[in-house]
Amino acid sequence: xxxxxxxxxxxxxxxxxxxxxxxxxxxxxxxxxxxxxxxxxxxxxxxxxxxxxxxxxxxxxxxxxxxxxxxxxxxxxxxxxxxxxxxxxxxxxxxxxxxxxxxxxxxxxxxxxxxxxxxxxx
Length: 122
Ligand SMILES: [Zn+2]
Hints:
By secondary structure, the protein is α+β, with helices and mostly antiparallel strands. It is 25% helix and 30% strand. The protein has helices at 3-20, 41-52; strands at residues 26-34, 61-67, 69-73, 78-82, 100-102, 106-113. The strands form two sheets. Strands 2-1-6 form a three-stranded mixed sheet. Strands 4-3-5 form a three-stranded antiparallel sheet, with no helix packed on it. The model has no long low-confidence stretch (mean pLDDT 92).
């Protein structure tokens, strides 16, 4: 995973959000990260600090929410969350499954912006 290119991407997205909302600064960025994304949060935080310099996102905090790996089990006929990304077996019936439904995502779930009212997170 190239953390710096991901960080630049995040900075450009949240900068656009801040401009659209007429906000001078981004306070907190909530990210949703799948267990299989191979992302190293500390590496991304470091890359983000570098990428955000001079932008409205400078000094913003990153919050990570880890999403479980979801697979579809054809035996149980439903989507189930894997307790471990190392073991691709249904936790209910123990059948092997490779029908991956989610777990690789890296998404910006929410952006907290500074506005004229006091921001609780700054
Ligand atoms: Zn099953």
